[in-house]
């Protein structure tokens, strides 16, 4: 009996120490405990694309002890508790309810991607502590169920396109909250928790007001009806008729208050301007010769560290610098355009940026400039030159762009045409054109409320970057029209050149399509259209589209093709197909021109056929 008891005890100990864990372990190996969590993750994997190979990496069970770990996933007790996919160029929109099955999720981050569409449904995720969706392209409103997340500690939604009102968050757990740089509106709810956060959590929203931002506008009192408010009116209880002099006094006070408020605001604004525009910065000009290595114009450094002026940045990954760093950088003139001069600036950190000093905008208010910069700076597309930062002062406006290393399309097509030049082949031309069409289609479609055209599409505003043998292009100087003081100034600058604009009509997307057609013809023929650039010595053609129409009339001839591509027989047919598109784009009647999305579709089709034929 004693022996038996000992044997049983030994067996129990042996079982609990070795056999049981082994069998649980093999159970985990053979079975997925929470398939609905995997299913939820599969939904994301299949609805977005990314530089991370999620299809290759997210295989097997996500929380398997022995399987290689899924990128961005952390598990605890066989449940997914953290999902972090940051800066991996996720594009597409998230399935609305996918998180609902990841019930133990505590940490969720999709920071620094290009996700569009609305925020996913977060309701019932009672364990959720951190939610980071900053620096994306999310639209829609902040879901009200967020205020019911009992353990929410951190919420970052800045730099998106969210609109609507902020729900009344009041979770005492909340220690980090940022909804800046969106399109939120209305009054910031006056809750104990939301009151804790400073202006930077809310600023740069189109129509948001209340503590800690500007107070919300109060409806002005009706001017001739005396207000019964306490300071001047007699006690309500007496119910006597007011003497006439009191009524007059009330009317005068009511009329004077708004004037005084405006005066105080004006004084504060003037003062802020003075602080922001140090005197030394206001001196100097940008008239030095092109290509000279020097400091930026107005380059007296502010020296005094107390007065260093911070610059706003759209991309957290760009090394941050301030105005002083920028003004101290060694600079070189890249070119002088109609809107101003562009410099390359080599910062002490080693980074190179392009800085455009903008002229003709002196009457522009700070608010107007900032609003437009915020709108443009958030537009992210591989075929747009990104705005990194900007600076406003009354005397000068700077726009800091990413530096694109290989010059402009104008330079590539028309400069150094002498012997020894490497010809720009058909494949390179097609790739450049396709990129321009992609950038333009994005500009026209990206923000539905944003009807502003590019309005300045020309070959010097198409910048080139080369990647080994292939050529790519990006658009710059886009959508400046709202910054120009008048129609006259845009006419003087020959912005948005299109027949209908010259006849006094409005600039629309169809004018951009016309300008795109002209660029297309420029790439096909290698000829410089009129007005493309300040006078240079190249062969110019009065009206490029008219000339091409004349040559191809009745006989689709290769005479129009640039001699550089005529030499090789590759791509002639495709070039003529592109010519057909170009002539439709440059139709005199705007309504007959195709949309940029349609143009892109047709160019992509030509590209596909071209690749199949190779
Ligand atoms: N982000 C940039 N990176 C590199 N080079 C640039 C950049 N922006 C402009 N450049 C160069 O500077 C030149 C002048 O540019 P700028 O925009 O000042 O004049 P523009 O192209 O004639 O346009 P606009 O007349 O509309 O002002 C361009 O042709 C290009 O070679």
From TrEMBL:
InterPro entries for this protein:
Kinase-like_dom_sf, LRR_dom_sf, LRR_N_plant-typ, PRK1-6/SRF4-like, Prot_kinase_dom, Ser-Thr/Tyr_kinase_cat_dom
Gene3D superfamilies the record matches: Phosphorylase Kinase, domain 1, Ribonuclease Inhibitor, Transferase(Phosphotransferase) domain 1
Q: Which residues cross the membrane?
A: 6-28, 244-266
Under the cellular component aspect of Gene Ontology, which terms does the record hold?
membrane
| Keyword vocabulary terms for this entry | Kinase, Leucine-rich repeat, Membrane, Receptor, Repeat, Transferase, Transmembrane, Transmembrane helix
Residue limits of the Protein kinase domain? 328-606
Region labeled Disordered — which residues? Answer: 277-306
Top-level taxon in the UniProt lineage: Eukaryota
GO MF, one annotated term: protein kinase activity
Kindly list the places in or outside the cell where this protein is found, as annotated in its UniProt entry.
Membrane
**UniProt-listed PANTHER family:** LEUCINE-RICH REPEAT RECEPTOR-LIKE PROTEIN KINASE PXC1, SERINE-THREONINE_TYROSINE-PROTEIN KINASE CATALYTIC DOMAIN-CONTAINING PROTEIN
Q: What is this protein called?
A: Putative inactive receptor kinase
């Amino acid at each position: 009996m004693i022996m038996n008891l000992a044997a049983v005890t030994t067996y129990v100990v042996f079982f609990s120490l070795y056999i049981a864990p082994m069998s649980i372990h093999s159970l985990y190996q053979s079975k997925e405990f929470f398939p609905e969590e995997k299913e939820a993750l599969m939904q994301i994997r299949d609805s977005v694309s990314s530089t991370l190979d999620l299809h290759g990496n997210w295989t097997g069970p996500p929380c398997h002890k022995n399987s290689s770990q899924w990128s961005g996933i952390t598990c605890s007790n066989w449940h997914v508790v953290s999902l972090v996919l940051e800066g991996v160029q996720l594009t597409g929109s998230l399935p609305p309810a996918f998180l609902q099955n990841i019930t133990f999720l505590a940490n969720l981050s999709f920071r620094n991607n290009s996700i569009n569409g609305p925020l996913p449904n977060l309701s019932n995720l009672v364990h959720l502590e951190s939610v980071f969706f900053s620096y994306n392209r999310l639209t829609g409103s902040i879901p009200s169920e967020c205020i019911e997340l009992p353990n929410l500690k951190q919420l970052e939604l800045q730099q998106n396109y969210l609109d609507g009102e902020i729900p009344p968050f009041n979770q005492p757990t909340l220690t980090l909250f940022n909804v800046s740089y969106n399109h939120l509106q209305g009054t910031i709810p006056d809750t104990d928790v939301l009151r804790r956060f400073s202006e930077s959590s809310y600023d740069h929203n189109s129509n948001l007001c209340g503590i800690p931002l500007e107070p919300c506008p109060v409806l002005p009192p009706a001017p001739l009806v005396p207000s019964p408010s306490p300071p001047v009116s007699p006690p309500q209880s007496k119910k006597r008729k007011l003497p006439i002099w009191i009524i007059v006094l009330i009317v005068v006070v009511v009329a004077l208050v708004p004037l005084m408020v405006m005066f105080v605001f004006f004084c504060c604004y003037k003062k802020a301007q003075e602080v922001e525009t140090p005197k030394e910065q206001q001196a100097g000009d940008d008239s030095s010769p092109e290509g000279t290595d020097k400091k930026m114009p107005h380059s007296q450094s502010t020296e005094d560290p107390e007065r260093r002026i911070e610059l706003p940045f759209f991309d957290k990954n760009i090394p941050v610098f301030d105005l002083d760093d920028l003004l101290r950088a060694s600079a070189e003139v890249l070119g002088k355009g109609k809107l101003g001069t562009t410099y390359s600036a080599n910062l002490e950190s080693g980074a190179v940026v392009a800085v455009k000093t903008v002229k003709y905008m002196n009457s522009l208010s700070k608010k107007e400039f900032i609003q437009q910069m915020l709108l443009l700076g958030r537009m992210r597309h591989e075929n747009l030159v990104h705005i990194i930062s900007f600076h406003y002062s009354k005397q000068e406006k700077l726009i800091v762009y990413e530096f694109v290393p290989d010059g402009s399309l104008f330079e590539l097509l028309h400069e150094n045409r002498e012997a020894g030049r490497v010809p720009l082949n058909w494949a390179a031309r097609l790739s450049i054109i396709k990129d321009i069409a992609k950038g333009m289609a994005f500009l026209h479609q990206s923000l539905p409320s944003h009807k502003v055209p590019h309005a300045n599409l020309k070959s010097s505003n198409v910048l080139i970057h080369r990647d080994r043998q292939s050529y790519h292009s990006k658009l710059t100087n886009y959508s400046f029209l709202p910054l120009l003081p008048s129609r006259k100034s845009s006419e003087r600058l020959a912005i948005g050149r299109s027949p209908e604009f010259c006849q006094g009509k409005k600039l629309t997307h169809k004018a951009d399509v016309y300008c795109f057609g002209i660029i297309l013809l420029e790439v096909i023929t290698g000829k410089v259209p009129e007005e493309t650039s300040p006078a240079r010595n190249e062969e110019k053609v009065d009206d490029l589209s008219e000339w091409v129409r004349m040559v191809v009339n009745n006989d689709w001839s290769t005479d129009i093709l640039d001699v550089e591509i005529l030499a090789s027989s590759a791509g002639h047919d495709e070039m003529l197909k592109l010519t057909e598109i170009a002539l439709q784009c440059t139709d005199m009647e705007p309504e007959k021109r195709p949309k940029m999305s349609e143009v892109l579709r047709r160019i992509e089709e030509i590209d596909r056929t071209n690749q199949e034929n190779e």
